[in-house]
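--- STAGE predict ---
source: upstream dedup step, 1 unique chain passed
mode: sequence only
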Amino acid sequence: MRGGERLRKLVLEEVDRLLPRLIELSDWIGMHPELGSEEYEASKRLSEELERHGFKVERGILNMPTAFRASYSGVGPTPRIAFMAEYDALPEIGHGCGHNIIGAAAIGAGIALRRALDEVSGTIFVYGTPAEEGRGPSAGAKRRMAEAGLFDDLDVAMMIHPTSGITRVNERFLAVTGITVEFEGRAAHAAAFPHLGVNALNAAVLMYMAVHANRQQLRRDANAVIHGIIREGGAASNIIPDRAVLQFGVRSSDDSYIPELVGMVENCARGAAIATGCKVHIDVRPGLKSNVRNEPLERLLYRILSELGEEVEPPELTARRIPMASTDFSDVTHVVPAIHPMISIAPEGVALHTREFAEATMTERGHRAIGIGAKAMALAALELILDPRLLEEVKEAHRRAISESS
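--- STAGE serialize ---
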C-alpha cells in the first residue's frame, strides 16, 4: 500500500474511533445551548478535547473570552491548514443552525489529521469562532480574526455546516450589514395632551414603510435583501412613545452594492425624523462580505464526499442557486482559499433556525454528518498536504478570484 493510501486509511480509522466521543460532545452542546459570546462551556469542552490529543491551545484570543486557537505541528511547519469550529446557539430555538455539529466535526478533523502529521510536514489549526449568529461583543468573530491577520499565513481553511435537502460543496453567501435606528421623541398623555408629544413610533412606522416602498427598485442581479423589525415602539397605548428602535439587515451578493443599500435605509430614517419632528440616531455596524469561491477545492470536496457515500449536488448546479444567507466565514475566503460545504442532516423542507432542525442535529442522521464532515475535511487536508501541485492550483485559483473581484 502506497504511503498516501495508508495515511488516508489511518485518518478514516481515527475518525471512526473518535466518533462516539464527537457525538457525545455535539449532543451535550445541543442539549445545553449557549448564546453567542456566552459559549463558555462549549468552548471549554471542545478546546480541552483538543488539548487531550496533544494540541497547544490559546484561549481568549483577540479579547474574545470564548474564542480559541489550537495548533499541532508535524515533522515540518507547512502547509498550514485550519478547520473552523462554531458553537453558538439561537435565542429560544437552541442549535437550530447546527453549530454543535460544526464544532464537533472541526475538532474531529483536526484530531484525526494529527495522526498523519506524525509522519508528514504540516501544521493543523482548529479555530474556535464564537457568535457566528451575530450576538454580543464577539459577534463576527471570523471577520475580526481576518482583520487582525490571524489567517494571513494559512494555506487553506475549511469548515462544514449542516443543512436540509441535498449536500452541497459550494454554497454562495451574501454580504450583510446591520443597522440600528433609534428615534427620540417626547412623551405625553395620548388623549389629554397629544399636542405636547412627539411620536417616535410614528417615525418608526414611516421609516419601515419607506424602506418597504424602496424594495421594488432594488437590483435583481445583486440578490439584494432588506429585512427589519420594530424592536421597541412604546410602553403603553395611552402614552405617546418618546422612543422607538428598529433593526435592519441589508444583504447582497455584490459587496459594492451594500453602501448604496445602507444609504437608502439611512435616508428613510432621516426623512421619517423630519416628517415627525423626532431626533434620529443611526448605528451602522461592521458588515460581513460575500464569499469567494474556489473551484479546485469544490472539486476536491465533491469527489471526497461522493467517495464517502454522500449524495452531493454537482457544484455547477449549486452555483446557479440564489444565495440566501450570510456568514462571517465569507470574510475568511477573502484572505485564504477556503470552503464551507453544507452537509445534509434532514429532508428538504426542514428549515434552518427552527426547533425541528435543532432536534435533527441529535438524530442518527445528524450523528452521521459529524463523521462524514470530519472525514471529508481531514482527507481533503491530507491530500493538499501530500500533493503540492494541487495545493498550488488551489492557491492560484484564489489569487485569480481575488484579482477579478477587486
